[in-house]
Amino acid sequence: MRSQNITNERIDFSDVVFISTTMDEEMSNSRVKEKDILLNITGASIGRSAVYKNSVHANVNQHVCIIRPKSEIDSNFIHLNITTLNGQQQIDNNQAGGGREGLNFKQIAKIVFYFPTLQEQNAISNLYRHLDAQIVNQQVKLDNLKLIKAALLQKMFV
Questions:
Q1: Tens of pLDDT along 20-68?
Q2: Are residues 124 and 105 in the same domain?
Q3: Which of 44, 108, 112, 118 has its CA 20 to 30 A from that of 69?
Q4: Whose CA is closest to 39, among 4, 64, 61?
Q5: Number of domains in the chain
Q6: 0.85 exceeded by the pTM?
Q7: CA-CA distances (angstroms) from residue 91 to 61, 70, 97, 114?
Q8: Which residues have C-beta within 8 Å of that of residue 64, sequence separation ≥ 6?
Q9: Which domain covers residue 124, as residue numbers?
Q10: Between the CA of residue 21 and those of 57, 59, 80, what are the distances in Å?
Q11: Are 41 and 105 in a shared domain?
Q12: DSSP characters over the chain
């Protein structure tokens, strides 16, 4: 997976690059596991992140950092923290490089978030997951209403 596959909502698998088994073995330290947080660390997409929710074998390139939380930390909660204004400001403040933005592992380690109990993290993550589902549902309804409106206008002026 490359940085363009990482969005703030999900991982876009439509144009992932497939590598050989030999290359995969050579890139064993870039293997992604379920519940890893993937964070873009270079270029215009710096700071975009997503949680890897698959159990399918995958790797990332050098433009994507794998954050693997401890068992007492909810991956979705970390992702929520990264996408907040505070999280994005910390990423902006820790960038380095001449003409190109970038984060290295030292700079990523400087990013600080506060965590409630795992139970509270799960509750917060579930609330936002529910809100996101509602937003998608409402967007589908809105898109359908726009289609109906367009069809009615078409019939009215023909």
A1: 889 988 988 999 999 999 999 988 899 999 999 998 889 999 999 999 9
A2: no
A3: 44
A4: 64
A5: 2
A6: no
A7: 19, 21, 13, 16
A8: 1, 2, 3, 6, 38, 39, 40, 41
A9: 116-158
A10: 11, 11, 34
A11: yes
A12: --GGGB-SS-B--TTPPP--HHHHHHTGGGEE-TT-EEEE-BSTTTT-EEE----S-EE--TTEEEE---TTS-HHHHHHHHHSHHHHHHHHHT---SSS-B--HHHHHT-------HHHHHHHHHHHHHHHHHHHHHHHHHHHHHHHHHHHHHHHT-
Residue pair 88/53 in contact (Cβ under 8 Å)? The answer is no
pLDDT band at 98 (very low <50, low <70, confident <90, very high): low
Judge contact between 6 and 41, C-beta under 8 A.
Answer: no
| 92/152 same-domain check | no
Do 82 and 156 lie in one domain? The reply is: no
**Domain containing residue 72: CATH number:** 3.90.220
Q: Say if residue 81 is in the same domain as residue 110.
A: yes
Q: Which residue has the tokens 């820790």?
A: 94
Joined tokens for residue 95: 């960038």
